[in-house]
Design brief:
The protein is α+β, with helices and mostly antiparallel strands. The protein contains four helices and eleven strands. It has two domains: about 90 residues, no CATH class; about 80 residues, no CATH class. The longest helix is centred in the N-terminal third of the chain and has 16 residues. The protein starts with 8 loop residues before the first strand and ends with a strand. The relative contact order is 0.19.
Length: about 180
């Protein structure tokens, strides 16, 4: 992919870009310039393995025990029993993260195993889809040391840009993840 001519947005190392996210990011740069706010794209296209790596990183950060060999994989031979039912260890760890308020999608459709309160509803027992990042139509933005910015500013700018129909379908403020998640058309 070619370099984008961005003034106020930048990419963290190893971010895998897509044509869909590049188009929206290029348009967004003008909004960030108008608000003198800098931000960094920390993630775009991800795989199931990438998602498991992030789940594992959060588990370590939030002191959630991983009773399995690392790294976490989709290998369903590593199971943990809960109420007489065996689940893949990654699903147990992921559900514990949700229980701690960490918003993260699973690597495949998966049932939430523990209490997970979001928007006033307990999502325990619900099936959650895999990350929209898998489809190349999402990216995350965070603060950078390049200039003035805050997650609140980033969220406000993205919300404003979404109203202008530049290809943003939704914006999610992920405080615990230190980012603002953006879905694209």
């Amino acid at each position: 992919m070619s370099d984008l001519n961005l003034d106020f947005l930048s990419f963290a190392p190893n971010v895998t870009r897509t044509d869909v996210t590049d188009l929206v990011i290029t348009k967004l740069d003008a909004y960030f310039k108008a608000h003198n706010c800098y931000a960094v794209i920390t993630s775009a296209l991800r795989t199931a393995a990438d998602q498991l790596r992030i789940i594992q990183q959060y588990a370590v950060e939030y002191n959630i025990s991983i009773p399995a060999p690392l790294p976490l994989t989709m290998d369903n031979t590593v199971l943990q029993e809960i109420n007489g039912i065996s689940y893949p260890i990654w699903q147990v760890v992921w559900s514990e993260l949700l229980n701690h308020g960490i918003i993260i999608n699973p690597p495949v459709y998966a049932e939430v195993l523990f209490d997970y309160w979001r928007d006033g509803l307990n999502k325990k027992g619900e099936m959650i889809p895999p990350s929209p990042h898998f489809f190349g139509k999402a990216f995350d933005l965070s603060v950078t040391n390049r200039g003035p910015s805050s997650l609140n500013n980033i969220y406000s700018i993205l919300t404003l840009a979404a109203k202008d129909n530049i290809g943003i379908t939704s914006v999610v403020f992920e405080r615990a993840n230190n980012c603002v998640h953006t879905n694209c058309l």
